[in-house]
Each structure stands twice: as structure tokens, then as C-alpha cells.
Amino acid sequence: MINADQIWQAALGELQLELTRATFDTWLRDARLVAHEDGTFIIGVANTYARDWLQSRLHSVILRILTRLAGRTVAVRFVVWEEPHAPEPAPLLQPPAQANERNFSPLNSHYTFDSFVVGPGNRLAHAACQAVAERPARTRTFNPLFLYGGVGLGKTHLLHAIGHVCKASGLHVLYVSAETFTNDLIEAIRNRTTEAFRDTYRTVDVLLIDDIQFIAGKESTQEEFFHTFNALHGNGAQIVISSDRPPRAMATLEERLRSRFEWGLTADIQPPELETRIAILRRKAEGWATAVPDEILYLIAECIQNNVRELEGALNRVLAISTLTARPLTPDLARAALDDLTARAQPEVTPEAILQAVTGFYRLTKEELASPSRTRRVARP
């Protein structure tokens, strides 16, 4: 008999690997299997917008994965469904008169400090985030706090963890991606509601903004964010920013923004070393009703070295295949499940990749590295 819940969890693991982080976290991370009736998977989401988006954009992808995992023809339907007592999501932009009544921060309940696995590569960033969460804007050293690191290393997790602590203290928290900030600005200009836009972003106690590198090269967005930053900082609000690179590595970022991003603490997050990867897998495995041998965890940790999200997705895939096929967890099964991931984990080294790694490590721009300058900062960084 098909265990629908296990199939759905396995499908989520594959979708986590197949989709971008932003897409998965926004539309699928909190989706739930509400029912399984006559071969139809009924998936519950938070609102009608999410339901319609999944139906139009990801229906065929999800259906393909569910059909393959179930081993037969199935159907999928999306419905609006909420946990009991879940608060009604409020719109992001409202008229100024309603500013103090908003509670719009879309914080992920799974992203807390308790669920974050600390290791040598993220210890400084984790400690800084805890300090900010406990005493937001109380020390200029941590305002702004700028986190940077590669994809899938936990930057978003830490931003949400800060948000949860600050909201529990009664503070007005806003978490958005830089892309959302840009889209909101475009809509505000189009609809002539820039005052409402500014009221939304400039009246919070804590602003958490993800993937700030998105605004580099966008003059109007940088101009608006510059004034938003100044207004918040001047009013004693806490600002936390994340990026995939340090401020100095963003070649098309305005100097006045770059200097402000460096006012406070800049903390990088490095890929987790083997012990931390195994610890992450152990914690993730606790959600399954199956004991996972250490040799399997070690094998997965050796296969996926640079991305925590892919690490979790790989574990989901191995456990799902074992459960759905009723086969024991063995190294051979794990290797077979991770064949394509092993190839993906060893990308081709190109000149562009080398250039990006060098500029990121030494906090130089590509222009500086290629210039004839022989200053100490460039010649001997």
C-alpha cells in the first residue's frame, strides 16, 4: 500500500534539489499533504496566491516526481489550508494610518537558533546574530550586521532566527529579499504609492534583507535603499543584510552604500567541514522514523560538501528510496541514489570560477584585479 506521506516527503527532497532556494522556501517548504484520496495528492498551502502559483508554475514538475515515486499514475491538487489558529497573512504594503497594526514578516518557523547547527565555518556569524537578536541596535559595532557566503550555507536561516527572537520581544520586524524590495518599489512607483512604500520599510524596528547583491547595478533601487538605510539607522533600528559576496566584491554597488554596509560587523559563512555536515545530517535524520547508520551519513557528507540545502535534500532522497522500495539502508543503495549528485558536486573549474573565487576571498573587484595598479592592497592583499 502506498504511504502517501512518505512519498510527499521524498518529493519535497527532490524538489529541494531541483528548484532554486527562493522558489522552494517561498512556495513549498511549508506545504503540507492534507489528504490522499483515490490516487490524488491534496496539498495544502497558506493562501490562494500560493495555490494559483503552484498550479500554474509547478504542477507538471510536482506531478512528474510524484508519479515516478508512486510507481503509478497519480494526480495532484492544491488547496488553501492552514494550521489551527494560524494568523491571517497581512499584505506587505498598507496605508500609513495602518502601519502600526501590521504583522507581515513571513518568517519560516523551522529557521530558529535551536535548529541551526554551529561549526567552525559559521561560528562567528552565529554568535553575531545571537547578539543582535538579544540586543538589537544596542551597539553600533553590529549595526548593520552584514552576512555573506555561498548558496545554501545558512544565511537565510540566521536572518529568520533573528526575526523570531525580535518578534517575541514585541519588536516590529520585516524580513524581505532584495528582489521583493525592488518589486515593491516598482509597484509603488507605478501605482503612485511611494509614501506607503516608505512607511512600510522605514518604520520597522528590525529590517532583515536577504540577497542584497540583487540591487547592484540598479540605480533607482540603490537610491531608495540608501535613503531607507539612513532613515532606519538614524532612528536606531537594527539592520541585518545577507549577500553571496562581501560589499567590496560587488563591483556595480554604489560606493556610498558599500561604505554603509561596512559600518558595522561583516561576518562570512564558510562551507561546513565534515564533522559539521555529519551533525547537520544527524539532526535532519531525527525527523524520520528510521535509524540511519553512521556510514551512510558519512557517505552523504563526503558527497555533498558545499551546500547545506543539497545535503538535506540528498538525505531525503536516500531515505525515501530505502522506504519506498523496502530496501535496507546500505552504502550501495546510498551511492546509487546519489549518482547524479556526485557528478554535480564536482563542477568544472573554469577561468571565470577561479577569478570569482580569488576576488571573493581577497575582497577585490574584478576590475581591480585586472587593472595595472600595483598598490599593496592589490599586489599583496
Task: Tell me what you see in this structure.
With 381 residues, the chain is α/β, with parallel strands linked by helices. The protein has 3 domains: 4-80, 2-Layer Sandwich (GMP Synthetase, Chain A, domain 3), CATH 3.30.300; 113-268, 3-Layer(aba) Sandwich (Rossmann fold); 274-343, Helicase, Ruva Protein, domain 3 (Orthogonal Bundle). Helix content is 50%, strand content 12%. It is built from 18 helices and 8 strands. The protein has helices spanning 4-18, 21-27, 48-57, 59-70, 123-134, 155-168, 178-191, 194-202, 219-234, 255-261, 274-285, 294-303, 308-324, 331-337, 339-344, 351-362, 366-370, 376-379; strands spanning 32-37, 40-45, 75-80, 145-149, 173-177, 206-210, 238-243, 265-269. A 5-stranded parallel beta sheet has the order 5-6-7-4-8, with helices on both faces. It has a 3-stranded mixed beta sheet with strand order 1-2-3. Strand 6, helix 9 (219-234) and strand 7 form a beta-alpha-beta unit. Residues 84-105 have low confidence and may be disordered.
